[in-house]
Amino acid sequence: MAFSVSGGTVFTILLISRLLESSMLNAEVKEGEILPPTIQRLMKGYNKYLRPFFDNGPVTVGMSLDIASIDTISEINMDYTATIFLRQRWTDERLVFEGNKSLSLDGRLVELLWVPDTFIVDSKKSFLHDITVENRLIRIFPNGTVLYALRITTTVACNMDLTKYPMDKQTCTLQLESWGYNINDVMFYWTRGNESVSGLDTLQLAQYTVEDHYTSVSEAVYETGNYPKLVFHFELKRSILYFILETYVPSSLLVVLSWVSFWISLSSVPARICIGVTTVLTMTTLMMGARTSLPNANCFIKAIDVYLGICFSFIFGALIEYAVAHFCTLTHPDAHIYMYGHHMHDFDDEKNGMVHTISSHSNRAKRRKEADTTPNAASASLELTVSTSSPSGIEPNPEASPPEPTHWCITVLTTIRKVLRAIYCCHVENPHHIDNYSRVTFPLSFVMVNLLYWTYYLYF
């Protein structure tokens, strides 16, 4: 019973295989009947698994590119996405035919011919357009030259140096290599040199302009051998106008806004604190927004980070300036005069006559008291002098005087004296002068730093 079941299964498999073979044969016959006589003669005895000139040296493949569009250039992913038309030309002696006209074939007939195994080296993701059919072109010329064109959209890696962002220039490449055929089998070349790539002159990009592009021919060296490689280089320059309006101008205006506090009285604590804290928080928000579109994985210190850091330092410095000025005002011996002296000027004119009268009477009374107390003071000083001397009128013995201080005591006293002298040099006579100096030093310093910043990043 088991034998009969296994025999029936084998018979069913054989029957299905026969049916599939017959259907494939019928499809080949129908395909052969559709092909014109010229193509039938060319395909007779043609082996697509063998390259042209299999025993007579390498086959040369010429390439050209047409850049249809560059959709996105991502600094976060370090890549760009482009749609290109890749054209390849080579000569196959097996496809020579008589006539003076080329044969344009359907793209689906490419399965019958040998084609180069070209691939894009740094491609992350690529696909061939297939609407409404696969975007392929096959054209055969009488001398055996084959033109093979493809429409491809690819995402290619591009290593970017963002140290001068957003005043940077990036050089990206598009590399074409042969996957399986080394330089002994296939040779690549650009059909028209640097003019083999077209479409960049009319290309419109969002943040970049194409400054230059050129081509080169090289070899890729791997463990399995040397392979032909074609490289297309193009230089991109970032447009800085957007970043000037979006980041540089707002951050500079915030710095200028923080200087408004220098013209506000030191007694207006809420007003000055409000300006300082508001500008600091706004600058922090601006710095965080500028970093959202940039990669965080790398350790680049970008030019825009340097400028935002400079602006933040000036804003924070303005806030610290008020803290120092206010502290000096509170610790000054005449703090009440500096803080509230402007309220007392209104009463000076009304009290001038009364003050002069009182002062004259007080001076007369003072003179009388001094005249009465002068003899008593003289006698008291004499008694004090006599009492401080010894009973016998002889000076005290120098051996009874206290010992001289040691060397370390002198060193400590000298250090303390130097520290006190330094503190006295930093003493502020009038705290209002701090604001007067800041009104000049802060703007001049900011202008000088800007000149150094733009000179370095634009010309070096």
TrEMBL record:
Residues 358-404 are annotated as: Disordered. Keywords: Cell membrane, Chloride, Chloride channel, Disulfide bond, Glycoprotein, Ion channel, Ion transport, Membrane, Signal, Transmembrane, Transmembrane helix, Transport. The chain crosses the membrane at residues 240-264, 270-294, 306-325, 440-459. Pfam families: Neur_chan_LBD, Neur_chan_memb. InterPro entries: GABAA/Glycine_rcpt, Neur_chan_lig-bd, Neur_chan_lig-bd_sf, Neur_channel, Neuro-gated_channel_TM_sf, Neuro_actylchol_rec, Neurotrans-gated_channel_TM, Neurotransmitter_ion_chnl_CS. It comes from the Eukaryota. GO terms for molecular function: GABA-A receptor activity; GABA-gated chloride ion channel activity. Residues 1-22 form the signal peptide. Pi subunit of the heteropentameric ligand-gated chloride channel gated by gamma-aminobutyric acid (GABA). GABA-gated chloride channels, also named GABA(A) receptors (GABAAR), consist of five subunits arranged around a central pore and contain GABA active binding site(s) located at the alpha and beta subunit interfaces. When activated by GABA, GABAARs selectively allow the flow of chloride anions across the cell membrane down their electrochemical gradient. Pi-containing GABAARs are mostly located in peripheral tissues. This is Gamma-aminobutyric acid receptor subunit pi. It comes from Sparus aurata (Gilthead sea bream).
